Amino acid sequence: MRRQGGRRGSIDLVRTMGRAGRMNQKVAVSVVFVAAMFMAILDATIVNVALPTLGRHFRVPATSVDTVSIYYLVSLAVFIPASGWLGDRFGGKRILLSAIVLFTGASALCGAAQSLTELEVFRVLQGMGGGMLTPVGLAMLLRVFPPAERVRVSGILTVPTTLAPATGPVLGGLLVTEASWRWVFYVNVPIGAAALLFGLLFLEDGAQQHPGRFDVAGFALAGAGLGTLMYGVSEGPVKGWGSVPVLVTTCAGVVLLALLARVELASDQPLIDLRLFNNRLFRACNGVMILASVAFIGTLYLVTLFFQDGRGLSALGAGLSTFPEAIGVMMGAQLASRVLYPWLGPRRHIAIGLAGVTVSIGLMALIGMNTSLWWMRLLMFAMGFMMGQVFVPSQAAAFATISAQATGRASTMFNTVRQLGGAIGVAALTTVVVAVGARHAIGGRVTPNLAAYHVAFLVAAAMAAAGVLVALTIDDADAAATIPVRRRRRTRPGGSLAEAGAVGDE
Fold this sequence. Notes:
Layout: H1 2-17, H2 25-58, H3 67-90, H4 92-111, H5 116-144, H6 150-178, H7 183-186, H8 188-202, H9 216-239, H10 244-266, H11 280-310, H12 315-322, H13 324-364, H14 373-398, H15 407-436, E1 439-442, E2 445-448, H16 450-471, E3 486-491, E4 497-503
Antiparallel strand pairs: 1-2, 3-4
Helix pairs in contact: 2-3, 2-5, 2-6, 2-8, 3-4, 3-5, 3-9, 3-15, 4-5, 4-8, 5-15, 6-12, 6-13, 6-14, 9-10, 9-15, 11-12, 11-13, 11-14, 11-15, 11-16, 13-14, 13-16, 15-16
């Protein structure tokens, strides 16, 4: 029996590495995608820590440096819509590696920037590359992994999605404090170079799709609409929602996106295929994702403010106190993919996960000025653990009934929704803190007003609770192809355990 088991293990190893020295594409695509995704998401959070230092270095007001983050987000939003068509037209490998080259090269240029204007231009280039990384990589993954295996993949790929935002403040604080602000950009270079080399060696060109002509009108409207809306949403908490620039850009973004919907629904070959939302499973999973992103990404940003401005921790201390969330996600994602998803199915699994997120964030509203911060760190771990029960089943189920031809467009849509949800979450919770007042005077002395953060935590919890209602609209039968069969074991008369057979979820 041992010899047979060893032989099976050798066969599995050979299959994994591929035949004739070629790596299995499931492994190759996963490695490149995880590295690229981690790099892109890390960049969005690590730079925030360096903003005060950038302001001092370039001798500009702190309010002027936020363009370094905003221009990146705007560029990201502009180029995400085109990524699906480009991947289908020119092949996933070519576009993914080109995006890695652009993102990595722009990171090096950002680190070498000699003025704020140069840095802003290079951040736009970074956004161009980052906008194509995740949608194209995800579409490649969905094509190499059959539906029944996607839940395991989601358990692995959820780690960079949630580990990167938690790692960013810690790593950023270390680099800015011990080295230079330039290293928050240079850190992408070795990661990007390794991912590029690995991809060149092991990624294979997949079968190209036939997306038809490029939808110029759709690209122009999507880029302008998402870009202006993202700018307005990002600047709203800083300049005030009543300021003319914010009002104009936000309203313009909404109008342009409404026009985009009308144009794309009338098009035979739309760049943004809104008809995908006729698919009830895809629609429900996107609804879950945007509400979960509002609550989760918004809370991650809010917690760093709470630790630093509310409780007086350093940037590094705040990052370390946030990190338990990443540990929770890693543990939760593995439990979700290996045990809970096959047992519960997506409907109950996502609903339970979001209910746990609601409770975890809601309890953060009870943390006062004298409460031990270990309670907050425990709640961060709990939130991360329960988010693992949301991201894994949502990503596994979302594409269950999407055809191979529509995978690229669906991946673009899914990532656009997630990106927009995160931006809305940060803007909404920051606005709540500003509206209530982050500071107040007590006895003639200005002190942090924790009530502002408490209200914001409750708003985030309400968003997660709304996600529970959306999750309950999911029909497990639609996602049946993604639910691995469960095996039960029975005891034979002789006392040995034997498989009784595969049993699917009812």
